[in-house]
Amino acid sequence: MTMLNHFFKILFTAIFVAFYCLALTRCSSVLEIKIDSPDPQIVVNCLFTEGAPWKVVLQQTVGVQQESIIPAIIDHAKVTIEGSDGTFLTLSHEGGGFYFGESSLPKMGVVYTLTVEATGFESVEATDQLPSLTKIQEVVINSESERIFVTLEDDGNAKHYYTLSMLTHNIQYGSFQVLNAELNEQMKQFSIQDPLAPYIDQPIVRVALIHDEPFNGQTFTMNISPQFSSSDPTTYLHTVSSSYYDYYLTKTVQENSRDTPFAEPSSVTSNIMGGHGVFAGYMLDVDGDDSPEILHHQLLGTYTSSGFSILNFGKVDTTPDHIEFTLHPKNRVTGFMQVPHESLPDSMMTVSLDGAYNISHHDGLDYQIRLYHDAQTLFRNTELILNRSYSNRQLSLMMIQSGLDANGRFAVFQRTFIKTSGR
Amino acid sequence: MKFFSKIILRFLVFLTPLNVSFAQSLIISGYVTDASNGEALVGTNLWEIYLQQGTTTNQYGFFSLTVPRDSAVIRFSHQGFEALILSFKDPLEELQRIQLLPTVIAFDSLLVIEADEYDGLHQQVQMSSMEVSMEEVEALPALLGETDLLKVFQLMPGIQSGVEGSTGLYIRGGTPGQTLILLDGATVYNAVHLFGFMSTFNTDAINTATVLKGGFPSRYGGRLSGVLDVTMREGNRNKFEGRGAVGLVASRVTVEGPLFNGRSSFIVSARRTYLDLITWGFQKLIGSDYIQGYHFYDVNAKWNMDVTSKDRVFVSFYAGRDKAYEHDRTSFAPGETDQSSFELDWNNVTLTSRWNRVFNSRLFSNMTILLSHFQSGILEELKYKTETNIGPFGDRYTNTGTFGDRYTNGLTDVSIKTDLEYFPHRDHHVRFGAMGTYHQFTPSIQRHHEFESALNIDTTIVIPVKVSTSEWSAYAEDEITLSRKLKANVGVHISGYVTQNSTYTSVQPRVSTSYLLPRDWAFKISYAQMQQYIQLLSNSGSGLPTDLWLPSTTDIPPQKAWQLATGIERTIDRYALDVSLEGYYKQMDGVIAYKEGGNLVGSNQNWEDAVTIGRGWTYGAEFYVRRKRGQTTGWISYTLSYSHRRFSDLNEGRVFPHRYDRRHDISIALVRELGRRKISVIWVYSTGHAVTLSTSRYTHEGAIIDLYSEHNGFRVPAYHRLDLSLHFPRDSAKPSEFILSFYNMYSRRNTFFIETKDNQNVDPYIGYYNEQRTIKKFTLFPIIPSLSYRFYF
């Protein structure tokens, strides 16, 4: 009988422990699935607009279980562009996978074909042209109702695709909601919908990607509820080609469904035959003071930093060192950094930062500047966030990166670059 | 060809006036019931000993057998009951009342020796049919000790499970939305509790349960892949009795008994979970502002009465409701409280009213009115209350307010149905009938409510989306005995559907035949066409309440399928074994799936845009050995299957495997009696389900973009698990037992879902992204022991 009592005691303990385990933990472990890397393919990124130099960024696809730096730059390709008007040009590599062409600039009505050949890869080809420009008719700011009304006149002869975004004075993309009922379904594609809360309102976006089906050939006013307080934002209306629209839409859908375990994975549409990425034309109309060109000019110059901080479990370590880089036109960057030697603790080593940089302003939190170069440094493919302070007219770049440190602990690395010379 | 002409010939013979040609015959008809409680015995075998011919009782225990002589000796046998041999002589009363006595346990082993060659599988025309008794369900181990009918069916060949622990039935490569679930004839749309981990069927209230995987007789229609036909018990006609069970998750109680001197009986069974009561008490006790809970309950009730000797009426009712809730109370300032609530609930109601009438010994009729309702809802609400003292006298001023949204979706069906069974001749058993159903879909009702006492605002805005459609069907089938060796069931199911501006109709031929080979092997072959007008749009396949039932529309046509199945079957009486080997091929057209990334569409105003239409093929072989009597009972099954899909919008239009395309599936379910104790085990093994994984990637503006090569191109590791349960009966006047069960005995870490993770290791100087990707699997259930107590009173 005592045996049985003991048995029951153990049993009941086991049951309660099991229940707690069930309630409090979800067990996870690493799954060993071998994923063979497919043959690498060329990835093209080229957005062109009327009168602006050609800029093509090339990288290659990398197997998911392949240990590699991403982006894996292609620096030996032959990149050509042929126009339907008979123009032909070959782009030159300027470092970091950036290819430039400054002749035969994009013209309205010309169909352009991009061809990329590189040894070790299947050649790729893509075709696109500039869409006709739709202008912003009017931007009305109603500070009382906290609404911004953007009016555009859609041309009924063709199907149009647009992206609308707004820049506020501190050079941050302002997020907003589009309240027009006829754009409801389109806007929903941008937000991850919680399957348990399907009635949620309009998503908050930084870039609204829309097509003109609900207002084709009409003067249309977008009713915008900004999530920022700015009396005078700069409004950007990109008229984009369908290739551009499809690429950004499917890319957004993939990003949104990525972390949902039961979601069907979605692929990103590409107009690059035999490869991936996007080759697309756009036209831009700006209402306001800030334009990407002005900003780009302001950015050029030399930046230095003399230390970084690591925030680790509330503890802050600051280590001095020296990093200097210069942003040149045509997305070229030169520079170096002096850091403690890996194996010789008291000596320093110099690492080159020569390569390319890119400014992205299509999505994401703020203006982002990325450095592309061959050295394996933290700045490779890390966002440098731009802060423009109007009081002292000084530009600074911030780098914030979180991850695991050498001991596997969570840490935040932070560094500030101050602009020391240039415009 | 000869075979078909034979069928047609027999059919023509039957159409000629029969009473003339068989004037000499004796018609024996009536009901077979369980002597101990008066309940109808469904599927009792009747065997005329001299003529070597027989029949079985229908769903209400009714039979009709025509013998071309003036006398007959009939053996009545039913598993678990003493066989009875009776002789009948002309003249006979129109209705016989046959009662069978349950077998006493002590004789059970003896019965095995007695050859019982009349109720074998080989005698039935029906193939691809699986049934389980509630005794078997209760004897087998169950997750958390909660016996579950659907999970036992998942152990049958050709029936697979989806996500771990879920109750969905994937029959021969079909999906749970393609399985018709009937409870006393009423469709149950969402047969799940506890987010899909438990089914709504309370075993104490169930009489029989059968699954058809193919060879569908004409009387069934409306789904492509399978039929689960469940009938509720009718209640003891002899005495009042009760039974119940206490488990870790839920407890249940059942009361039944006779009414009107045994002319009527009733049964009421109720079940509820109580984990929330315990946690609620605990959360209150510690004064928590955050309260979270979950519960479900369900009630089954049935009443029946013999109005006259030829008329019986039945009313059966099921209601079940699940609710998960979360209340969070916060106070930002003194005198100010906010309470935010989130609730998720879903419920099912079915009501069946039925009238059985025996017109004469050859004609049995059944008239049914059915109601089925399903609704799920989500509520999000904020209540606030501010109390301030204002004015020169410090008047207490209270302001309360509420604003919230409730989103519901549901489906209500009203059906009227008539079924007739006609026994014109000993070689014919004819069934025919018709049904009309009115469906009202409410795919989305949005209700916004605002109330503010100070401003005297009370607004409610309701935005309903309603779609009404109607469906009708008619059928006729004849189970023909063509010769001693050859039997066939030939029939047709006709259906139609009216939706918006479109009308769909279909004529679905159905044929099943059985040919007796030497050594009692039966060779069977069947062909069936099916059509489905109602679609289930599922986010996860796990039976979450967000699954939506939607009508076919002008743009989304009905799903269609045809299936060819063939096999051999035999009952080996010496060892009490049923052996079966079947192969099938099924093609489905118009199946729906979410478009890429369209999985998260919560608002369904435009659900037609979120889905894509395609085609599916499934084929496979199923092997099955089952022992129904003896000290050791149970079955071993093996299924080899293939399930493919093709959608123009998915996988670039190439064929890909279905998510639950499980190549190999083995199930072993055994119960062993050790004196009065019992031990039972389940072992399952199945090929891991298919997943889509990215094979390569690149970055754009810092974001990783994944590239996929093949849809469902990878497999998670094989699923396997061992469950064990021990039954300890207690000595008392009324039987009762403790059940100790272990789910996942060796704690196999089966994959519930997978997640990919990009590792980012950073070093301030030489650091770079280590971009290697790891794939993590999440396991739901390790070993789970549980204890429950079952009793009778």
Helical percent range of chain B?
Answer: under 10%
**Assembly annotation:** heterodimer
Overall spatial form of chain A: globular
- How many H/I helices of chain B? 7
Helix content of chain A: 10-25%
Q: The biggest beta sheet of chain A, please? A: 12 strands, mixed
Biggest sheet layout of chain B: 22 strands, antiparallel, barrel
Count of runs of 4 or more consecutive helical residues of chain A: 4
Unreliable runs of chain A: 1-18, 192-200
Poorly predicted regions of chain B: 7-23, 106-118, 599-605
Rg of chain A, Å, rounded: 26 Å
Residue-averaged pLDDT of chain B: 83
Number of strands of chain B: 47
Average pLDDT across residues of chain A?
A: 76
N-end to C-end Cα span of chain A: 91 Å
Quote the beta fraction of chain A: 35-45%
Distance between the amino and carboxyl termini of chain B: 60 Å
Query: What class, by secondary structure content of chain A?
Result: mainly beta
Explained architecture:
The complex is a heterodimer of chains A (423) and B (793). Chain A is mainly β and 423 residues long. Helix content of chain A is 12%, strand content 44%. Chain A contains four helices and 29 strands. Chain A has helices spanning 2-24, 184-188, 242-257, 292-299; strands at residues 27-31, 42-49, 54-60, 62-63, 72-73, 78-83, 88-93, 98-101, 111-117, 124-129, 136-142, 147-153, 161-167, 176-178, 207-211, 219-226, 234-240, 276-287, 301-305, 308-312, 315-319, 322-327, 332-340, 348-352, 355-360, 368-373, 384-389, 394-404, 410-421. In chain A, the strands form three sheets. In chain A, strands 2, 3, 5, 6, 7, 8, 9, 10, 13, 15, 17 and 18 form a twelve-stranded mixed beta sheet that branches. An eight-stranded antiparallel β-barrel of chain A has the order 19-22-23-25-26-27-28-29. A four-stranded antiparallel beta sheet of chain A has the order 11-12-16-14, with no helix packed on it. In chain A, a hairpin with a 5-residue loop joins β28 (394-404) and β29 (410-421). The longest helix of chain A is centred in the first third of the chain and has 23 residues, at 2-24. Chain A is globular, with a radius of gyration of 26 Å. The N and C termini of chain A lie far apart (91 Å). Residues 1-18 and 192-200 of chain A have low confidence and may be disordered. Chain B is built from seven helices and 47 strands. In chain B, the strands form ten sheets. Chain B has a 22-stranded antiparallel beta barrel. In chain B, strands 8-15-16-11-12 form a five-stranded mixed beta sheet. Chain B is globular, with a radius of gyration of 29 Å. Chains A and B meet through α1, β1, β4, α3 and β23 of A and β40, β41, β45, β46 and β47 of B.
